[in-house]
Amino acid sequence: MTALTTTPQTRVAAPVSGPVRRRPRRLITPGDVGRLVGLIVATALTLGPVLWTLWTALTPLDTETGQRVFGLAAFADVLDQVNLGLLIWNSALVTILVAAGQMITAAMAGYVFAKIEFRGRRLLFGLVLATMMVPLQVTIVPVFMLLRGMGLADTLLALIIPALPTAFGTFLMRQYFLTLPTELGEAAEIDGAGPWRTFFLVYAPLAAPGLAIVGILAFNYHWNEFFRPLILTISEENFTLPLGLVSLQGNLGTGSVATVLAGVVISMIPALIVFVFGQRPLREGLTAGSGK
Question: Which of 8, 9, 20, 175 is spaced 20 to 30 Å from 276 by Cα?
Answer without folding.
Answer: 175
